[in-house]
Design goal:
Blueprint (H helix, E strand, L loop, with lengths): L14 H12 L3 H8 L6 H7 L11 E9 L2 E8 L5 H13 L5 E4 L3 E9 L4 H10 L1 H9 L3 H5 L3 E12 L2 E11 L6 H19 L2 E8 L6 E8 L1 H4 L2 H16 L1 H21 L4 H12 L9 E5 L5 E8 L13 H10 L4 H24 L3 H16 L4 H14 L4 H14 L2
Antiparallel strand pairs: 1-2, 3-8, 4-6, 4-7, 5-6, 8-10, 9-10
Helix pairs in contact: 1-2, 4-14, 6-8, 10-11, 10-14, 11-12, 11-14, 14-15, 15-16, 16-17
Length: 424
């Protein structure tokens, strides 16, 4: 029997009660559940082997995005973020989008691009032709570097070359296209382009400088779409408002930056929870948004003939199930089990759906009650904590500040003092 990601009153439960529900949903062991429930499961010893100059660890809040229905399958989404309202907004958006059938996703093959920069060429176009003429030899050299990847159906599949003009003259950029299967692929691609460089130098008579993976993974795209009934959104005016907001972001880079950041709020939180490289995802997403010469939005919202809202998102998504911190960080491993994804492409598609949900939540708030209403209520909790409120008084102080619409540390201290004096 399939399990539903719709959990009534999930936000009202204690952390322990929520963890028990997630434990059952994802079939976590007692040890895995206990690990997640710790304040910091990443030990100093493990951290010391992950990065350099370690002095400690820095925990982030880990929450669960509920209500997600993607391609007919229910998901609970682990999200690590310090920003209030992100998880609540994603969960609420997923619940609304579920009324229209949930999210539908697709993706291209997990192909990454490795670049080899060739300089000091007498004739760059001739060098390009020379490289393309020995394509098979270059691909063989690349694939000789990783027999395991070849065994699983991956490896270098193709290459291309292009001449670019720069401030230091013409350069030939040879691009190797590598199917990385369930890995993000940086190590495999970098090893391959380094191995191929001597052959390219010998063939062209030029000098190879950089040989490195590109984080603009235009051959590794994910897409998500959804249709939301106008009644579920809040009516025709809200649908129209979201469509107008989307058109604004498509045409104006200043708005597009914030529009895209809204989508990335959810994506990066999940990427971080799973131990993937969030910096690569953000770099690739923003570069993709500007690939045609002007920065624009990577999601779109329109009103269809029935008056319902239709949304879509497309962006590069270089994530993996193996390598890096994914198999080392203890919490990342549990988060992967909670997600239950079986391939890097499935993970990428889930992330696209999370991004579309987060984007929808922001636009709906902007187009109806305003972004501050919900966000500031949650922000008030952080302010209360910063003012030194004990945990049992945080909600009381936050609620009063939100009601007064005066949310700052000084006001929190005043309320805290009042509450303490009233108990004397």
């Amino acid at each position: 029997m399939s399990k539903s990601s719709v959990i009534s009153g999930f936000y009202k439960l204690t952390p322990k009660e929520r963890l028990d529900i997630v434990k059952d949903f994802a079939s976590l062991t007692d040890d895995e559940a206990n690990l997640v429930g710790q304040s910091c499961a990443l030990t100093l010893d493990v951290a010391n082997h992950m990065v350099e100059n370690v002095i400690g660890v820095f925990p982030e809040p880990l929450g669960i995005g509920a209500n997600f229905l993607i391609n007919g399958k229910d998901y609970l989404i682990p999200m690590a973020t310090e920003e209030p309202s992100v998880i609540a907004a994603a969960s609420y958006a997923a619940k609304i989008i579920r009324e229209g059938g949930g999210f539908h996703t697709s993706s291209t093959a997990p192909v990454m691009i490795g670049q080899i920069q060739v300089v000091k060429l007498k004739d760059a176009n001739k060098a390009k032709a020379q490289v393309l003429a020995i394509k098979d030899a270059i691909l063989k050299k690349a694939n000789d570097q990783d027999s395991a990847l070849i065994h699983f159906g991956g490896g270098a599949k193709d290459l291309d070359a292009r001449v670019i003009n720069t401030t230091m003259g013409e350069m030939l950029i040879v691009e190797l296209y590598v199917d990385c299967r369930d890995a993000m692929g940086a190590n495999a691609v970098n090893t391959m382009v380094e191995a191929c460089s001597p052959l390219i130098e010998q063939t062209t008579g030029g000098r190879v400088c950089l040989r490195i993976l590109s984080n603009l993974a235009t051959k590794r795209l994910v897409r998500a779409t959804c249709t939301v009934p106008k009644e579920a959104v809040g009516g025709a005016d809200v649908v129209e408002g979201i469509a107008y907001a989307s058109a604004f972001a498509a045409a104006d880079p200043y708005r597009a930056a914030t529009h895209n950041k809204g989508a990335l709020n959810g994506i990066i939180a999940t990427v971080l929870a799973t131990g993937n490289d969030h910096r690569a995802i953000e770099a690739g997403a923003h570069a993709y948004a500007a690939i045609n010469g002007q920065y624009t939005s990577f999601s779109q919202w329109t009103q269809n003939a029935k008056g319902d809202l239709e949304g879509s998102i497309e962006l590069p998504m270089a994530v993996g199930l193996i390598g890096g911190a994914v198999r080392i960080h203890p919490i990342a491993k549990v988060c992967m089990k909670i997600l239950g994804v079986k391939s890097s492409t499935e993970l990428g598609e889930v992330l696209a759906a999370v991004g579309l949900a987060q984007n929808f939540a922001a636009l709906r708030a902007l187009s109806s009650e305003g972004i501050q209403r919900g966000h500031m209520s949650l922000h008030a909790r952080n302010v209360a904590l910063a003012a030194g409120a004990p945990t049992e008084l945080v909600e009381v102080i936050a609620e009063r500040m939100a009601k007064e619409r005066v949310i700052n540390v000084n006001r929190a201290i005043e309320i805290l003092t009042e509450l303490r004096n009233s108990k004397c």
